[in-house]
UniProtKB/TrEMBL annotation:
The keyword Endoplasmic reticulum does not apply. This is rRNA methyltransferase. PANTHER family: 37S RIBOSOMAL PROTEIN S22 (PTHR13184), METHYLTRANSFERASE-LIKE PROTEIN 17, MITOCHONDRIAL (PTHR13184:SF5). GO terms for biological process: methylation; translation. GO terms for molecular function: iron-sulfur cluster binding; metal ion binding; methyltransferase activity; structural constituent of ribosome. Keywords: Iron, Iron-sulfur, Metal-binding, Methyltransferase, Transferase, Transit peptide. It comes from Streptomyces aurantiogriseus. One of its GO terms (cellular component) is small ribosomal subunit. It holds the Pfam family Rsm22. The keyword Transferase applies. It comes from the Bacteria.
Amino acid sequence: MNDPVSPAEALRKLLDGLPPRQAAQAVDRLIANYRGATPTDAPILRDRADVAAYAAYRMPATFEAVRSALEAFADAVPEWTPGSHTDVGGGTGAATWAVAATWDGERPVTVLDWAEPALALGQEIAAANPALKEARWQRARIGASLTLDDTDLVTVSYVLNELPAPDRAALVDAAASAAQAVVIVEPGTPDGYARIIEARDRLIAAGFHIAAPCPHSAACPIVPGTDWCHFSARVSRSSLHRQVKGGSLPYEDEKFSYVAAARFPVTPAPSRVVRRPQIRKGQVLLDLCEAEERLDRTTVTKRHGDLYKAARDADWGDAWPPAT
Ligand SMILES: C[S@@+](CC[C@H](N)C(=O)[O-])C[C@H]1O[C@@H](n2cnc3c(N)ncnc32)[C@H](O)[C@@H]1O
C-alpha cells in the first residue's frame, strides 16, 4: 500500500521503470545544470528524464525540508488549518505532499510551474495521495506580471535561488497579496539564508507576522556575513540515490533555511535552538535565538531537573523550552 504521508513510495514505484543507467545519467546532467549559472531563461527540467531525475534525487529532500518548516509553522498557529494551498514553482509537488502530511483533510491545491514535464510527473506521483487527487497542475511563469488568486497558504520551496532579484521580489509580493500565510524554503547556505532574509523583510513590510523559525518579527540578530540561520532534516536515501551519490549511509541530512509568516496573529516559539545541541557530561549547551532579539548560549544542567531531560531530547530547530 502507498504511504499517503510521504512521496517516497510513490516515487519508487514510478522510477522502477526507469533503466538505472539512464536515471543516473539524467541525475548527473541535472547536477551539472544546477551547478551552472542560475537563474536561467528557460526551464532546467526539460523532459521526463530530467524530471524523473529531479524527483528521485531531490524531491525526498525538499519534501522533508518543507515538512520541517511547516511543522514549526503549525506549532505557532495551532488553531489554523489552510483551507486552500498554492505551491508556486512547485515542480513535482514536494510541498503539496508536505502540506498534506502536516494538516489532515482535503483542500483545493494548485501547483504553478513553467516546466510542463515537472507538472505532468508531479500529477502522476500525486495520484498515490488521496489529498492531492484533485490538485490542479498549471503552467505559469514567475516574473513581474505574476498574479496569484487568493488562497490561504502559499509555499515557495527551493525556487527563489532560480530567480533574478526583481522576480524574487515580485514573487514574494504576489504571495503576500494573495495569501493568509506564506512559507518559503531555500537551501541552507549563506546565499539561501540571505534570500530568506530578503523575503522576510518584504513579508514584514507587507504586514505579516513571522511565525517561524524566528521568535519575533524584529530584525534578525545575525550580523550579515558572520553566520547563517539554517536547519537540518533527515532524509532516507533511495537505492537510486545511493547508486548515484555512492556511500552506504541509509540517510542524509538536508540543510535548509526558511521563513513562515501569516497575516493573522501567531504565537512564535519563545526561543529556538539554532545549532545542534552539545551534550556534555551532566549538561547540555543550547544555542538559542531568543525573543529578546539576540542569540545566546544557555547551559542546562542536571540541577534543572525536568528541563535537563528536555534539553537532552532537544534537537536543532526545536522550540525552547518545549511546550508542556
Ligand atoms: C529546485 S526546483 C523546486 C521544485 C519544488 N518546489 C521542490 O521543492 O521540490 C525549482 C522549480 O522552480 C521552477 N521555476 C524556476 N524558475 C521559474 C519561473 N521563472 N517560472 C516558473 N517556474 C520556475 C522550476 O521549473 C522548478 O520546478
